[in-house]
Amino acid sequence: MWKYSKNERARYGSAEICNPKDFPELVTYATNVARAVGIQYGAAHVELKATLEDGLYTNPIMIEVGARLSGGRKSTMAQEVCCFAPINMLFADGKHQLLSH
Predict the structure, then answer these.
(1) Which are the contacts of 73, defined by CB distance < 8 A and separation ≥ 6?
(2) Rounded Cα gap, residues 29 and 1, in angstroms
(3) Of 18, 31, 78, 96, which one has the fewest beta carbons inside 10 Å?
(4) Among residues 95, 71, 70, 91, which one has the least CA distance to residue 20?
């Protein structure tokens, strides 16, 4: 899970990897969005905006949803930081790995 902030020009100012367990309300919303469009297994990339109120994110709004991993280098960066390869989560049991050359 990634959290972005924007600067005064509405451009991305920063991005940080977050623990999804710290944002259960957003994970529930994203899971429901993915299921609503028919994603039942595998990856789901859900981009949303939410309002921070009293330490909780509320009123999430879906921006984008797709049956894919996050784009760019995010999967590689997550692997370096979180000690798991997001691409391996695409397999049914999460234990199989792609062969490297």
Answers:
(1) none
(2) 13
(3) 96
(4) 70
